[in-house]
Every structure is written in C-alpha cells, then in structure tokens.
C-alpha cells in the first residue's frame, strides 16, 4: 500500500496536520496513487480521527521512541523543516516534501528548506501551497543526500544558517 508519512517532530504545527488531511490534499494524494497517510502530530491540539479523511486511510499518533520505521515504510515523507526530521528522512533515502511554517519569527527553517531544495534533495512549500504542490510535484528531480556524513550535514547547516 503506497504510504505517506507526515511528521511535525516534537513541535506543534496544527496547520500542517489540518492542511495534509484536508479533503483537497487527500484527493491530491489519492490521485497520485497514495492510499495511506500516517501522521505524527506531536504536541499539537489537532488529532484527526481515522474516519476524518474520506479519500485515504488515516492513522495518527503523537510520539514514538523512534519514527525510523514509519519513514522506512513511507513512499513519501512530508515534514516540518526541522533539521532532525529532514536529516532522518533524507538519510533514509525517502522523497521529502518539507512544509515550512511561515508563521515562525526568524525562520531558519525556510533557509534550510531553500538550500536543500537548491541542491535538489527535497521539495518545499507552505501550508497554503501544499495541495497545489502535491498535485504538481515531480519527485524524479530529487537527488539522494550523501549518506553517513554527519560532519558534511553539520557544515551544510552552518552554511545554510549563516554561521560559517
């Protein structure tokens, strides 16, 4: 069963959960052949019921000790732009669509997403453009992130965030 895994990490990002479970987004996923949506909703106040998404099978949880298995089983990962979540999905070699929280002040997440997108490692959007991105995305343009090189990722983060 073709699966999407969406994660907000340890944060609260209700807008992402609402956007990805909207009827329009679910229809866009279904049109691309996805049949199952697994949500990691974190600390948010939104916790969708399994029956709330009519076009696709929905499962949700708040936290697990590890989301590695969820990522491994996913055909597409949709994530907030947290560095840890991005690294975990990219390290697993999964196509990654990052949804930037454009309501955050001093948004380093946007800088990270833009740089990883420029390097063809992921696609990114905001909650308001998620459905259109799901409809039009071309995952074939994505390039694998070099595995097993945490120093390279740390250096990359430093450059992307303007630390070095």
Description:
By secondary structure, the chain is α/β, with parallel strands linked by helices. Helices cover 37% and strands 17% of the residues. The protein has helices spanning 14-20, 23-31, 68-73, 83-91, 108-118, 130-136, 150-160, and strands spanning 3-7, 36-40, 57-61, 76-79, 96-100, 123-126. The chain has a six-stranded parallel β-sheet, sandwiched between helices. Helix 2 (23-31) runs parallel beside helix 6 (130-136). It is globular. The model has no long low-confidence stretch (mean pLDDT 90).
Q: What integer value in Å does the Rg equal?
A: 15 Å
Q: Give the oligomer, counting copies of the same chain as homo and different chains as hetero.
A: single chain
- Order of adjacent strands in the largest pleated sheet: 3-2-1-4-5-6
Which regions contain 5 or more consecutive residues with pLDDT less than 50?
none
Q: In percent terms, what proportion of residues is strand?
A: 15-25%
Order of helices and strands: EHHEEHEHEHEHH
Q: Summed up, what is this model?
A:
This protein is α/β, with parallel strands linked by helices.
Key terms for this structure?
6-stranded parallel beta sheet, globular, 164 residues
SSE blueprint:
Layout: E1 3-7, H1 14-20, H2 23-31, E2 36-40, E3 57-61, H3 68-73, E4 76-79, H4 83-91, E5 96-100, H5 108-118, E6 123-126, H6 130-136, H7 150-160
Helix pairs in contact: 2-6
